[in-house]
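Collaborator request log, item 7. Partner lab (contact: R.S.) asked for a structural prediction of APC family permease to inform their binding assays.
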Amino acid sequence: MAAVIPETEPPATAMRRTLGVRDGVAIAASSTAATTSIGIGMGVLALYAGRQTPALLIVAFLPILGIALSYARLNRTEPHCGNGYTWVGRSLGAWPGFLTGWVVLVANVVFMAYTSAVTGSVILQFAGKLGLHSLLGVPLDPGSTGVSTVIGLVALVVVTVTAVTGVRSATRLQWVLLVFEYAVLLVFCTWAIVSGDQPFSWSWLDPFAIGSVRSLAQGLVLAVFVFWGWDAAFTVNEETKNASDAARGGLIALLAMLGLLVFAAIAFQRAMGDGELVAQGPQALTYLGARLAPEPWASLPLAALMCSAFASLQSTVIPTARGALAMGRDQTLGRRWTRIHPRYGSPAAGTVMIMAISAAVAVLAVGIPRINLMILTAVNSIGLIVSLYYGLTALACAVRFRGALREGPLAALRCVLVPGLSALALFGLGAYLAYRYATMSDHFQATPDNGWFLLLIPGLFVLTGLVAAAVAKWRRRSPYFTTGRGTDADTIALPMDRRPA
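Returned to partner:
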């Protein structure tokens, strides 16, 4: 006779260690979404950096590389799916640590709500290319926020299912999407470099040729945002066969991202002048495809953009659920975030809840125009959030390993100086961006181009984080706050989801 398990004592299980370096690369590369960044970001970068966009990308990569090395060093000592949330909490204090986890969680939810609508719009554009312009009497208009959101929510459900059924199956799908989109990107960018009529100049790689310090700083903030997402590989370090595989995956994806971005920037500038590139804006990649090839080949960049948006949506669901899992283990969030599926070994409940919250925000954006403005503004000002949590994590590395200053120049450079300088660089960029937002407008207005409104959104992220931290400390009495340490990843018994597999 089978034993009856009491409802108050659920069986414990853990996430399964099935991933390798290749899977980490897939998650990090999909999260950074090179094709999407290239497709919609090159025109914006050119607005500030002009023909020095390749140089801007290289300069912006330097502090990001320092941050990535900090992540790798911390991960080697303490692999934890909460990464920055845990490392900052144990090195700098519970309050900055909780804020690190909170702002990443909220920013990812907002990003998913925004990206689901963008994904729906790209899918509709591709459907139109295939001749499908209506379905059940409903016009499939890519410019319709409502229709795009509905299609995007379907895509969000699909990526959630793949994430719940196991991160390994999700990474396999991401590899298929990555191979296709990178192949298309490389072919068209190579074609543009070979056939372009704009003369190449070595000044394109000279950051000192950028017109002003203001343009350089603003461009750097945007470029740092373009690189955002490689740290997703570190959220699955409790599911990799070796914890160092997560670091290798993230670093490989980051280096590949740099190569693709610089290569694409040169290709775009060989094919288009400054004014033309800026004018095309978010349509730069599809415009390039139409210039170089006839249909149906001209639609391949759009198909690659669709794959990139889909993969980015999926790769955001995965790390967000695992960050919430880490916070749930410390009881800074509810225990429901820690439930592991008995068959798939994934944080299924948290993954579904993340999807539901993102979907609700996306739906609210359709019905309440003010919400839509807030989402767009949050995406525009997310550079502040990225600078904050990347900088805090690098600073945590410098503080934790400060003893390396006595171990020789190389150890001091690797463990303290590079992380510390990278943190200062991002804090400086964030402070500059905040100053720009504070001084660019003389009144408050709820529009995405109003500086005070741009400051309000990240301010709300931090304020809600402080409130949530207070609840975790004084109401939940989380060990993260009361002991100053929280819960170790390998000592917690996670509740198993009782629903049938």
